[in-house]
Specification:
The complex is a heterodimer of chains A (346) and B (351).
Chain A: E1 11-24, E2 29-44, E3 49-53, H1 60-67, E4 75-80, E5 83-84, H2 90-97, E6 100-103, H3 117-127, H4 133-146, H5 163-175, E7 181-185, H6 193-210, E8 213-217, H7 221-227, E9 230-235, E10 238-244, H8 245-250, H9 255-263, H10 293-297, H11 303-306, E11 313-317, E12 320-323, H12 331-337
Parallel strand pairs in A: 3-8, 3-9, 6-7, 7-8
Antiparallel strand pairs in A: 1-2, 1-4, 4-5, 9-10, 10-12, 11-12
Helix pairs in contact in A: 3-4, 3-5, 4-5, 5-6
Chain B: H1 6-11, E1 24-37, E2 40-53, E3 57-61, H2 68-75, E4 84-93, E5 96-97, H3 103-109, E6 114-117, H4 121-124, H5 131-142, H6 147-160, H7 166-169, H8 179-191, E7 197-201, H9 209-226, E8 229-234, H10 237-243, E9 246-251, E10 254-260, H11 261-266, H12 271-278, H13 309-314, E11 327-331, E12 334-337, H14 345-350
Parallel strand pairs in B: 3-8, 3-9, 6-7, 7-8
Antiparallel strand pairs in B: 1-2, 1-4, 4-5, 9-10, 10-12, 11-12
């Protein structure tokens, strides 16, 4: 945005793959690989929140780490503000680190118990040589107030706080350098509902004030739908549906999205809903089925057709992308997308 | 309602009107449990009463630290010793007070007549034994079967929880199974002896929503088949709404509201219940809108007020002062802690 050129997305990743080797035997020879992320393309605009949902083991967190280059993808590209950072060294990445930050699920494990809260929040400022000691001190006080922690919190230790307050410390650390992108990996999953809504509100406020973009990962579809502009549904290392938060909720196309939505227990006993019960578990990413992974799980009669088929995303409606997979679409949707070309969302 | 004499209603705390033919399986009255700590004796459960009928599911909901799990542990005398102990109260299970029975009898009850499922299946299973051995142990202990019979029975128990090819799986170790499958093994162990009561403490919290739906569906199905009663402890109001008949809402060791599920969701009377219900993000809310929150935080146990504890959280003064608000039946089956500041609508009028 600063250079006045065409406003591209803040971050775009294309066809990113992250594979982990599986080693076994006496010589620890590589005997296979876990395809944790297997060809994902995604773009995040400025001030936008993209939600990412999926069951455990589908590759959400691995993707998050690849996005901020805590992991190096095996293939594909990660472009942040027009700079290709796929192969950047950690030294080259350092100046960019102030623009991308992360908030983690477990505030206990992600905060150093031997540092005071002030030290924790000050650390990014020191690393990036922001201001002198007095300026940093003022900045930390400002941050504490901004995230709603008592003024005397700086001199305490993280274990003296409740779960929600610890998450506030993590947020203060993440926004200390005014980042452009914050990757939130299950930031509210460990919290009680009343605290969860406090943290969600705080994240939304910060976004309005500072124009932060979020990649928001959670397994709770209701929370994700609430905070996101667009939602990506991930299954076994691939995105199977990507659409605006409204569209995902009002008109889910992929059978897996439908099942996920129907599995959320509705806090209203008066509502009788038809529940789609999924049998079985997510297949192993070590030996994924050759065809449609979801079609295989539900033993769809058209599974055989999908072996060798390109199951990439197609744009079924403007801005609504779904995997071109006969096992996972309704008859009418399949008729609609059958002839459409597979491409990756811009 | 107004025609009920409130004083009489308070006396019947822990009772409830039963339809003819339904049989009360468990009645808890005035349960108080505490822990001995460096900071003195801390009461985690402070006078909890409820009852469960055969075939019924009672939900206990509340935030972490409200005493849900301690209540469950107290029922079957499983509080960590020597720190934890039940101070007061009755736990009448099929006419017998479990607080007074011998340790031998308790051994029979636990796992035999009362089955339990806990949150994390990995900690409930022994990692170094095959699951078959762990499930068959229940049969050997409670049904006095020999090794071979018990092994066969274990396969059947695993089949009942719809584990695919149980005759193969029975030889697996816990780490070889997925989270959902492990929880099925725990359910198989809990239900092996066809208990009269199942206590499930956050049975699906560690699982994905899709697997959660499978497991809850399974528990419901088996419960209907066996006519078993259940106590389902969770912090998820959605799970409560879909699986329970009666709900107990706990806050800071006390019951603040107790009602049949439809009544509770249609007409929550206590401010805390309303706060909980309002803070859930619902799919029907406009995206990115501000969510309702409950201000403040639960006070530490050592600083808990004697009066209304929700008023304490909100930093306001209850007009009852230090007096504990009574739990009263304000309409049939609907009980609420009657702090004038915390309960609204018809409850306030009847106070």
């Amino acid at each position: 945005m600063s250079e006045g050129e065409t406003i591209g997305p803040l971050l775009s990743i294309e066809d990113v793959k992250v594979h982990f080797p599986v080693r076994s035997g006496l010589m620890l020879r590589q005997t296979g690989k876990v395809k944790a992320v297997d060809g994902v393309s995604l773009a995040i605009g400025e001030g936008e929140t993209v939600g990412l949902v999926g069951e455990s083991g589908c590759g959400k967190s691995t993707l998050a780490k690849a996005v901020v280059r805590l992991l190096k993808p095996n293939a594909g590209s990660v472009v942040f503000e027009g700079t290709d950072i796929t192969h950047s060294s950690s030294r080259a990445l350092r100046p960019l680190r102030s623009d991308m930050q992360m908030i983690f699920q477990d505030p206990v494990e992600s905060l150093n118990p031997r540092q005071s809260v002030r030290q924790i929040i000050e650390e990014p400022l020191i690393i990036h040589r922001e201001g002198d000691a007095a300026a940093r001190r003022r900045r930390v006080d400002e941050l504490l107030e901004r995230v709603g922690l008592p003024a005397n919190s700086g001199e305490k230790f993280s274990f003296e706080f409740s779960g929600g307050q610890r998450q506030r410390i993590g947020i203060a650390r993440a926004i200390a350098l005014n980042p452009k992108l914050v990757v939130c990996d299950e930031p509210v999953s460990a919290l009680d509902v009343s605290v969860q809504s406090q943290i969600v509100n705080l994240l939304l406020e910060l976004q309005r004030e500072m124009g932060i973009s979020y990649l928001f990962i959670a397994h709770d579809l209701a929370v994700v739908q609430h905070v996101s502009d667009r939602v990506a549904v991930m299954y076994l290392g691939k995105i199977v549906e990507l659409a605006s938060a409204q569209a995902i909720y009002k008109r889910p196309c992929h059978a897996y999205t439908k099942a996920l939505l129907s599995a959320i227990p509705e806090a209203d006993p008066a509502v009788e809903r038809e529940r789609i019960l999924l049998e079985g578990d997510v297949p192993s990413p070590i030996n994924p089925p050759e065809g449609s992974a979801f079609g295989h799980r539900i033993s769809h009669p058209r599974y055989e057709e999908t072996v060798g088929m390109n199951l990439g995303l197609v744009e079924i409606e403007p801005g609504h992308w779904v995997a071109r997979d006969p096992c996972c679409l309704s008859e009418s949707d399949w008729a609609k997308v059958q002839s459409l070309p597979v491409s990756s969302p811009p | 309602m107004a025609e009920e004499d409130p004083a009489k209603a308070v006396d019947r705390q822990g009772d409830k009107k039963r339809e003819p033919g339904s049989e009360e399986i468990l009645r808890v009255r005035g349960l108080e449990s505490a822990f001995d700590t460096e900071r003195g004796v801390l009461k985690a459960v402070d006078g909890v009463s409820f009852s469960v009928d055969r075939g019924q599911t009672l939900g206990i909901v509340g935030e972490s630290g409200c005493g849900k799990s301690v209540t469950a542990m107290s029922l079957i005398s499983l509080l960590p010793r020597p720190a934890g102990k039940v101070l007061k109260g009755e736990v009448i299970f099929k006419g017998e007070d479990l607080q007074k029975v011998s340790e031998t009898r308790l051994h029979e009850v636990r796992g035999g007549e009362i089955g339990t499922i806990f949150q994390e299946p990995m900690t409930a299973l022994n990692p170094v034994h095959r699951i078959g051995r762990q499930v068959s142990e229940v049969f050997r202990l409670h049904k006095k079967m020999d090794k071979k019979e018990a092994w066969e029975a274990a396969i059947e128990a695993l089949r009942m929880t719809r584990i695919p090819s149980p005759e193969v799986r029975v030889g697996d170790y816990p780490h070889q199974l997925s989270g959902g499958m492990r929880q099925r093994v725990v359910i198989a162990m809990a239900l092996a002896c066809q208990p009269d009561l199942l206590i499930a403490d956050e049975p699906t919290t560690a699982l994905d929503v899709t697997v959660q739906a499978q497991i809850l569906d399974l528990i419901q199905g088996l419960q209907a088949e066996m006519g078993m009663a259940a106590i389902l402890i969770t912090h998820d109001l959605g799970v409560i709404a879909e699986n329970c008949d009666v709900v107990v809402v706990m806050y800071a060791g006390r019951v603040v509201e107790r009602a049949p599920v439809k009544k509770l969701f249609a007409n929550p009377l206590h401010a805390y219940t309303r706060g909980l219900l309002n803070s859930i993000p619902r799919l029907s809310l406009p995206p990115k809108s501000e969510l309702n929150t409950i201000p403040g935080m639960v006070a530490p146990l050592s600083e808990m007020a004697r009066g209304c504890r929700f008023c304490q959280r909100l930093g306001r003064r209850s007009s009852l002062g230090d007096e504990r608000p009574e739990l009263r039946e304000v309409s049939p089956g609907h009980w609420v802690e009657t702090c004038p500041e915390c309960c609204g609508g018809e409850a306030r009028e009847s106070v």
